Amino acid sequence: MRLKVITSNPGKVEEYRRSFSDLGIEMEHLRLPYDEVQTSDLSEVVSKGMDEIVSKGVRDFIVDDSGLFVDSLKGFPGVWSAYAQKTIGNKGILKLMEGVEDRGAEFRCCIGCDFAGERIIVTGVCRGVITCSEKGDGGFGFDPIFSEDGVRTFAEVPTAEKNETSHRGNAVRLLIEEMKRRGLVRGR
Ligand code: IMP
After folding, report:
1. Domain total for the chain?
2. Taking burial as the number of CB atoms within 10 A of a residue's CB, which of 7, 151, 157, 184 is the most buried?
3. CA-proximal residue: ligand 1, atom 11 (nearest)
4. 126 in a domain, yes or no?
Protein backbone atom coordinates (compact mmCIF):
# COMPACT_ATOMS: atom_id res chain seq x y z
CA MET A 1 0.00 0.00 0.00
CA ARG A 2 1.20 3.49 -0.85
CA LEU A 3 0.29 7.03 0.19
CA LYS A 4 1.52 10.19 -1.51
CA VAL A 5 2.49 13.01 0.82
CA ILE A 6 1.67 16.23 -1.03
CA THR A 7 3.92 18.93 0.40
CA SER A 8 6.81 21.18 -0.49
CA ASN A 9 8.53 20.15 2.78
CA PRO A 10 10.60 16.90 2.53
CA GLY A 11 10.96 16.90 6.36
CA LYS A 12 7.25 16.15 6.69
CA VAL A 13 7.54 13.12 4.36
CA GLU A 14 10.20 11.68 6.66
CA GLU A 15 7.98 12.24 9.73
CA TYR A 16 5.06 10.45 8.05
CA ARG A 17 7.34 7.64 6.84
CA ARG A 18 8.38 6.94 10.44
CA SER A 19 4.78 6.95 11.70
CA PHE A 20 3.39 4.71 8.93
CA SER A 21 6.24 2.20 8.54
CA ASP A 22 4.75 -0.18 11.15
CA LEU A 23 1.50 -0.30 9.20
CA GLY A 24 3.20 -1.46 6.00
CA ILE A 25 2.28 1.72 4.13
CA GLU A 26 4.95 3.25 1.88
CA MET A 27 5.10 7.03 1.69
CA GLU A 28 5.96 8.78 -1.56
CA HIS A 29 6.77 12.49 -1.84
CA LEU A 30 4.70 14.41 -4.41
CA ARG A 31 5.14 18.12 -5.07
CA LEU A 32 1.76 19.27 -6.38
CA PRO A 33 0.80 22.91 -5.76
CA TYR A 34 -2.83 23.50 -4.77
CA ASP A 35 -4.78 26.61 -3.79
CA GLU A 36 -5.05 27.43 -0.08
CA VAL A 37 -8.48 29.08 0.30
CA GLN A 38 -8.74 32.23 2.45
CA THR A 39 -10.55 31.08 5.59
CA SER A 40 -9.77 31.09 9.30
CA ASP A 41 -10.47 27.33 9.55
CA LEU A 42 -7.58 24.91 8.88
CA SER A 43 -9.90 21.99 8.09
CA GLU A 44 -11.61 24.06 5.40
CA VAL A 45 -8.23 24.83 3.81
CA VAL A 46 -7.43 21.10 3.85
CA SER A 47 -10.85 19.98 2.60
CA LYS A 48 -10.89 22.44 -0.35
CA GLY A 49 -7.28 21.50 -1.17
CA MET A 50 -8.29 17.82 -1.25
CA ASP A 51 -11.20 18.57 -3.63
CA GLU A 52 -8.77 20.26 -6.01
CA ILE A 53 -6.22 17.42 -5.83
CA VAL A 54 -8.92 14.77 -6.45
CA SER A 55 -10.23 16.82 -9.40
CA LYS A 56 -6.74 16.48 -10.93
CA GLY A 57 -7.14 12.69 -10.79
CA VAL A 58 -4.80 12.09 -7.84
CA ARG A 59 -5.97 9.60 -5.16
CA ASP A 60 -4.43 7.96 -2.06
CA PHE A 61 -2.68 10.96 -0.58
CA ILE A 62 -2.10 13.03 2.56
CA VAL A 63 -2.08 16.83 2.87
CA ASP A 64 -1.69 18.89 6.01
CA ASP A 65 -1.85 22.44 7.20
CA SER A 66 -0.76 23.75 10.57
CA GLY A 67 -0.47 26.97 12.49
CA LEU A 68 -0.06 28.72 15.82
CA PHE A 69 -3.18 30.23 17.40
CA VAL A 70 -2.53 32.77 20.17
CA ASP A 71 -5.45 33.32 22.59
CA SER A 72 -4.82 37.01 23.34
CA LEU A 73 -4.31 37.78 19.61
CA LYS A 74 -7.75 36.29 18.83
CA GLY A 75 -6.18 33.27 17.14
CA PHE A 76 -3.57 35.19 15.10
CA PRO A 77 -1.40 34.14 13.25
CA GLY A 78 -3.51 30.94 12.74
CA VAL A 79 -3.96 30.12 9.06
CA TRP A 80 -1.54 32.94 8.23
CA SER A 81 1.29 31.35 10.28
CA ALA A 82 3.63 30.71 7.36
CA TYR A 83 3.20 34.31 6.17
CA ALA A 84 3.64 35.72 9.70
CA GLN A 85 6.77 33.62 10.17
CA LYS A 86 8.25 35.03 6.93
CA THR A 87 7.32 38.65 7.67
CA ILE A 88 7.19 39.61 11.38
CA GLY A 89 8.83 36.37 12.63
CA ASN A 90 9.08 35.30 16.27
CA LYS A 91 10.31 38.74 17.33
CA GLY A 92 7.18 40.29 15.83
CA ILE A 93 4.89 37.91 17.77
CA LEU A 94 6.80 38.67 21.02
CA LYS A 95 6.46 42.40 20.30
CA LEU A 96 2.68 42.06 19.81
CA MET A 97 2.54 40.32 23.20
CA GLU A 98 4.66 42.74 25.17
CA GLY A 99 3.00 43.34 28.57
CA VAL A 100 0.25 40.79 27.81
CA GLU A 101 -0.48 38.58 30.82
CA ASP A 102 -2.51 35.86 29.07
CA ARG A 103 0.24 33.86 27.29
CA GLY A 104 -2.03 30.90 26.30
CA ALA A 105 -1.67 29.55 22.77
CA GLU A 106 -2.03 26.36 20.79
CA PHE A 107 -0.53 24.73 17.75
CA ARG A 108 -3.04 22.98 15.50
CA CYS A 109 -2.32 20.53 12.72
CA CYS A 110 -5.03 19.39 10.35
CA ILE A 111 -4.33 16.31 8.22
CA GLY A 112 -6.49 15.27 5.28
CA CYS A 113 -6.13 11.72 4.04
CA ASP A 114 -7.67 10.25 0.88
CA PHE A 115 -7.26 6.48 1.02
CA ALA A 116 -9.04 3.55 -0.64
CA GLY A 117 -11.83 5.92 -1.73
CA GLU A 118 -12.41 7.21 1.82
CA ARG A 119 -11.73 10.70 3.18
CA ILE A 120 -10.51 11.33 6.73
CA ILE A 121 -9.82 14.78 8.18
CA VAL A 122 -8.40 15.05 11.70
CA THR A 123 -7.00 17.93 13.77
CA GLY A 124 -4.34 17.50 16.43
CA VAL A 125 -3.88 20.21 19.05
CA CYS A 126 -1.06 21.06 21.44
CA ARG A 127 -1.73 23.67 24.12
CA GLY A 128 1.00 25.72 25.74
CA VAL A 129 2.23 29.25 26.34
CA ILE A 130 4.14 31.91 24.43
CA THR A 131 7.38 32.63 26.26
CA CYS A 132 8.65 36.18 26.86
CA SER A 133 11.86 35.63 24.85
CA GLU A 134 13.25 33.21 22.26
CA LYS A 135 14.96 30.14 23.70
CA GLY A 136 16.71 27.11 22.16
CA ASP A 137 18.34 26.33 18.80
CA GLY A 138 16.40 23.20 17.79
CA GLY A 139 13.15 22.84 15.86
CA PHE A 140 11.83 25.39 13.39
CA GLY A 141 9.26 28.16 12.96
CA PHE A 142 7.65 29.22 16.24
CA ASP A 143 9.39 26.51 18.31
CA PRO A 144 11.72 28.98 20.15
CA ILE A 145 8.74 30.95 21.56
CA PHE A 146 6.31 28.09 22.32
CA SER A 147 6.43 26.01 25.49
CA GLU A 148 4.13 23.05 26.06
CA ASP A 149 5.24 22.36 29.65
CA GLY A 150 5.84 26.00 30.64
CA VAL A 151 9.51 25.20 31.30
CA ARG A 152 11.28 24.41 28.02
CA THR A 153 10.40 25.70 24.56
CA PHE A 154 9.88 23.20 21.71
CA ALA A 155 13.26 24.41 20.42
CA GLU A 156 14.86 23.01 23.61
CA VAL A 157 13.12 19.62 23.45
CA PRO A 158 14.48 16.68 21.34
CA THR A 159 12.31 15.99 18.25
CA ALA A 160 11.20 12.52 19.42
CA GLU A 161 9.99 14.03 22.70
CA LYS A 162 8.27 16.91 20.89
CA ASN A 163 6.38 14.38 18.72
CA GLU A 164 4.89 12.76 21.84
CA THR A 165 2.84 15.86 22.60
CA SER A 166 2.97 17.97 19.44
CA HIS A 167 -0.02 18.93 17.31
CA ARG A 168 1.41 16.97 14.34
CA GLY A 169 2.14 13.89 16.50
CA ASN A 170 -1.39 14.04 17.93
CA ALA A 171 -2.94 14.47 14.46
CA VAL A 172 -1.01 11.46 13.08
CA ARG A 173 -2.14 9.33 16.05
CA LEU A 174 -5.78 10.36 15.46
CA LEU A 175 -5.46 9.58 11.74
CA ILE A 176 -4.02 6.10 12.31
CA GLU A 177 -6.70 5.36 14.94
CA GLU A 178 -9.44 6.34 12.48
CA MET A 179 -7.87 4.31 9.64
CA LYS A 180 -7.84 1.27 11.93
CA ARG A 181 -11.43 1.93 13.08
CA ARG A 182 -12.58 1.98 9.44
CA GLY A 183 -10.64 -1.22 8.69
CA LEU A 184 -8.38 0.55 6.16
CA VAL A 185 -5.25 -0.70 7.89
CA ARG A 186 -4.60 -3.56 10.23
CA GLY A 187 -3.14 -3.22 13.72
CA ARG A 188 -4.07 -3.00 17.34
P1 IMP B 1 2.57 24.28 7.69
O2 IMP B 1 1.17 24.48 7.23
O3 IMP B 1 2.77 22.97 8.39
O4 IMP B 1 3.58 24.54 6.62
O5 IMP B 1 2.83 25.36 8.84
C6 IMP B 1 2.60 26.74 8.66
C7 IMP B 1 3.54 27.52 9.55
O8 IMP B 1 3.23 27.23 10.91
C9 IMP B 1 5.00 27.15 9.36
O10 IMP B 1 5.63 28.01 8.44
C11 IMP B 1 5.58 27.37 10.73
O12 IMP B 1 5.98 28.70 10.83
C13 IMP B 1 4.42 27.14 11.68
N14 IMP B 1 4.50 25.81 12.30
C15 IMP B 1 3.77 24.70 11.98
N16 IMP B 1 4.13 23.67 12.76
C17 IMP B 1 5.10 24.13 13.58
C18 IMP B 1 5.87 23.51 14.61
O19 IMP B 1 5.76 22.31 14.93
N20 IMP B 1 6.76 24.30 15.24
C21 IMP B 1 6.94 25.61 14.94
N22 IMP B 1 6.27 26.22 13.98
C23 IMP B 1 5.34 25.49 13.30
Report:
1. 1
2. 157
3. 141
4. yes
